[in-house]
Amino acid sequence: MNGLQLISTGSALPRRSVSNEELAQMVDTDDAWITSRTGIQQRYFCSEGESAVSLAIAAASEALRNAQLTPQEVDCCICATVSGDFATPSVACMVQAALGLREDIPVLDVNAACTGFLYAASVARGLLCGNGGRYALVIGCEQLSRILDMTDRTTCILFGDGAGAGVLESTQESLYADLLGARGSQAICAAGPGSQPSHIQMEGRAVFRFAVEAIPRCIEGILAKTGLTLDDIDWVVCHQANERIIDHCIKKLSAPAEKFYKNMSRYGNTSAASIPLALDGLRQSGQLRPGMRLLCVGFGGGLTWAGTLLTWKGDSHETA
Ligand code: COA
């Protein structure tokens, strides 16, 4: 079965950024507590006219533009989200309509919370292999502000809105590996809009313990599967939930800290959008070179986890 390589990325953020100081005016918290416990300094919240769908459309069209592909060349579109505008149509179908993707392709949403983008990539890979297609448009988007309890200081300070997208190409050329897993648990829980409770609820300490066990397990699992070591990896792109979680894992693995990308200070935890936003951050800041190996690690609600090894083809594709 072919693997996948990443040929482009895109992202979109709401207009409104919300600082820790601004949150401190709404709940009993302060910048020092939030920064020291999470590394988060600001996040974005949607306002009038913005939603998970509008962000997904913007991120996906940027990723297509950067890949120099037309919408007609996309062979499947998968969107990871837990906060789409509607139960149906899916966010992916709304992206299809907005961008003018073909009608003879599979288009669907995936719910694996913060692991969603990596689950979506794996689903896309299976579809491309099964259907013989070449290009997958994979999106992660969230409007978590819609399901946050703004009176609960233990959760509302953690999350933000945003979207990221990637174009992934089916290939035999570059190394690809993934491992996905899940353990049904309500340690992180949010019901759909309209039902009770509709807000994100979380057992903070239990989730922390889960995360610092899952990340090293995913990294070691991918390295064992591929025969690589961390020396062969250019970037480790973890889900950006909390800086302390990543730092804890770096220590546990005795890993080189400079390989672990971090951007949670600017965006907070954007769940399914987190990993594609990080990938796009690497691209935008000029830190990706053709052939670079990216070890992505997702973990979150479900509980779910995933490790995915991708190669960045980006620049070579854009100049081809
Ligand atoms: N501002 C100020 N104080 C706060 C606060 C806030 N926003 N949130 C909680 N506190 C208080 C608590 O009430 C508690 O006070 P007490 O000792 O008087 O009872 C104290 O801070 C410690 O709370 P605790 O929950 O033990 O803090 P913590 O060190 O475990 O940090 C998290 C809380 C949420 C930051 C941490 O558990 C965490 O990062 N968990 C993982 C969360 C996550 O990333 N989830 C998403 C995974 S995809």
What does this structure look like?
The protein has two domains: 3-171, Peroxisomal Thiolase, Chain A, domain 1, CATH 3.40.47.10; 177-312, Peroxisomal Thiolase, Chain A, domain 1 (3-Layer(aba) Sandwich). Helix content is 34%, strand content 24%. It contains ten helices and 13 strands. The chain has helices at 20-24, 31-38, 52-67, 91-99, 116-131, 204-226, 243-253, 264-267, 274-284, 314-319, and strands at residues 3-12, 16-19, 42-45, 76-80, 107-110, 135-142, 162-171, 177-182, 188-189, 201-202, 235-238, 293-300, 304-312. The strands form three sheets. Strands 1, 4, 5, 6, 7, 8, 11, 12 and 13 form a nine-stranded mixed β-sheet that branches. A two-stranded antiparallel ribbon has the order 2-3. Strands 9-10 form a two-stranded antiparallel ribbon. A hairpin with a 3-residue loop joins strand 12 (293-300) and strand 13 (304-312). The chain binds coenzyme A. Coenzyme A is lined by residues 29, 33-34, 37-38, 114, 153-154, 157, 202, 204-205, 207-208, 211, 241-242, 269, 300.
